[in-house]
Amino acid sequence: MAKCDVCGKGVSFGIKVSHSHRRSNKMWKPNVRRVRAIVDGEHKRIYACTRCLRSGSVERGHGNGLAKATEVDILLPEVNTFEVQPEEAAEAVVEATTKAESEEAAEAVVEATDEE
């Protein structure tokens, strides 16, 4: 039977008792999944119970591990080349909103004069 490689949870044995008190052996199996995880920096397939998966004891390895790295490599140069100080960015936002508000007010005045 499969056994959790993380916590060691395995099969438990006991006795099933019916209503008429007949006894027979019973086996309780753990909810074990075969998952791809990162073990010692390498992607490996291991057996892990769902409790270990939910608790975060297992670091999952999705795909071949390249998708996240390429996304980060693509985004980092854009972030590093964008050099705007927080104060300058705030001023730019204020200027843009005041400019948009003044344009909206001018359009409202033009519409009001056209209606008359």
In the predicted model, the low-confidence regions spanning at least 5 consecutive residues are 66-80
The helix content is 40-55%
**Shape category:** elongated
CATH architecture of the largest domain: Roll
Number of domains: 2
- And the CATH topology of the largest domain? Ribosomal Protein L24e, Chain: T
For the record, what is the CATH homologous superfamily label of the largest domain? Answer: Ribosomal protein L28/L24
Number of strands: 4
Largest sheet: 2 strands, antiparallel
User: Structural class given helices, strands, pairing?
Assistant: alpha+beta
Q: Which CATH class of the largest domain applies here?
A: Mainly Beta
Strand residue content: 15-25%
Strands ordered across the widest β-sheet: 1-2
SSE order, one letter for each helix or strand? EEEEHHH
Enumerate how many helices there are, as a single number: 3
pLDDT average, as an integer? 76
Rg value = 32 Å
